[in-house]
Amino acid sequence: MQYFSRLALLLGGLLLGTPLLAADIDAETYGYPITNPFEATIATTPPELRPTLPADADIRQDDYQLRLRPEREFELPENFWPVTRMRYRLAEQKGEAPLIFLIAGTGAHYASSTNEYLKKLFYGAGYHVVQLSSPTSYDFMASASRFATPGLSSDDADDLYRAMQAVRANHPSLQVSDYYLSGYSLGALHAAFVSKLDETRRSFNFKRVLLLNPPVNLYTSISNLDRLVQTQVEGISNSTTFYELVLGKLTRYFREKGYVDINDALLYDFQQSPQQLSDEQMAMLIGTSFRFSSADIAFTSDLINRRGLITPVNYPIEQGTSLTPFFERALQCDFDCYMTEQLIPMWRARYDGGTLNQLINQVSLYGLEDYLKTSSKIAVMHNADDVILGPGDIGFLRNTFGDRLTLYPLGGHCGNLNYRVNSDAMLEFFRG
Rounded distance, CA 275 to CA 271, Å? Predict the structure, then answer.
C-alpha cells in the first residue's frame, strides 16, 4: 500500500509539473535510538546498529603527496615543512571500478574519522575512494590553496578541483569507469560548488553527487556553532575549567569500567554511564571543537598571507619556536572575527565584493539555487534536528531539491551517517 501511494505521488508530480515532495522519514519507523541532537552529534550510532565494514588490512590503500604550491616551501616557516605538500589517501580496487571523491568537513584532515568511515563504506561496495582534506584544514591551506583564505566557496571549490585533477594525473594506470562525489558537513557545501564547476570544465562529468548534512546558510551554521561556546555550564568556576570537568568525568568512567579502552564506541558507551555529559556540557564540547577549527583557520591564513593580525610579520619562527602564544591569540578570534578581519577584506580587494549579505548569498547554497533545482544528479541527506540548521533552511532544501532531499527526523549533525539505514540509502543512491 505504501509503495503505491508513493508511486501515485511521484506520477502526480510529474504530470502536474509541481515540485516533488522530499522523502521525510517517519521517526517511529526510522529506528535511530538517540533523540538528543547533541548526543547524536558526539556519540553517533550505537555499535550494534552500524554497517559491517571492511577491515583496514583488507583495503588496498596508501597515502600520497603532491607538490601543488612549491612556493610555500620557501614562504612558510621551517616547522611547517610537513604540510607544504598536499597529502591524500587512495583506496584502490583491483581492476576497473567507479571512483568517488570524499571531501572532509570543517577543519578536518583527509583521514578524519568520518572520512575513514565513508571510505570503508564505499570501498566495501566496490569503489575506488579518494579522501581529501577540507579547504579549511591547515594542511590544505598550506599545500593546495591559492589564497589560503578559506570561506569563499567558489575559490575553495576551485582549489579542490585542481587537487582532484592532480590526483587523477598522479595515478595514470588507475582504471575508472565513472566519477562520483560526496562530502559531509562543510565538505557537502564544497561538493555542491565543485559539481557546478565541473559542469563547465568537464574533467570528471560526475555521475552522481551526494551532499551529507550541508550548511544551507553558511553564516547561520557558523553562528549556531559559535554560540555553543557561550553556553553556561554547571560545575565550571574560576578554579575548574571545562576541560578539567570533562577529564574528571572520563577518569571516573574508566575507573568504574576497570580498564581504559579508547575506541569509536567510547562516546556512546560513555553517554550511557552515570558520568554522561549534560546537554550544556555537550553543547560546549561541540562549540569548543568548532572554535579550535576557527582558530586554526585564522592563525594559518594570517601566517601564510603575512597579515600581522596574529603573528607579527617579521617574527622569527624556527623549528623549536613555540606557537602556543599565537594560537591562544587566535582562539580569541571566532569565525565572525576571521570573516571581518581576513575573509571580507580579501574578498573586497580581490573581487570588488560588497556587503556581508552579498557574501553570505555567494558562499551558501543560495548561490547555487538555480543549478541545484535543475541538476537531477545531486541529492541531499539531512537531519531535521541538525544543530547547524536555522529558520527557513529546511524549507529551502525542500523547495530546491524536492524528492532528491531525504530528511531524517533524528541524528543531530552527521551523527547518523554510520547508522545502517543511512548507509544503505547512500549506497542505493549511488547505484541509481
Answer: 7
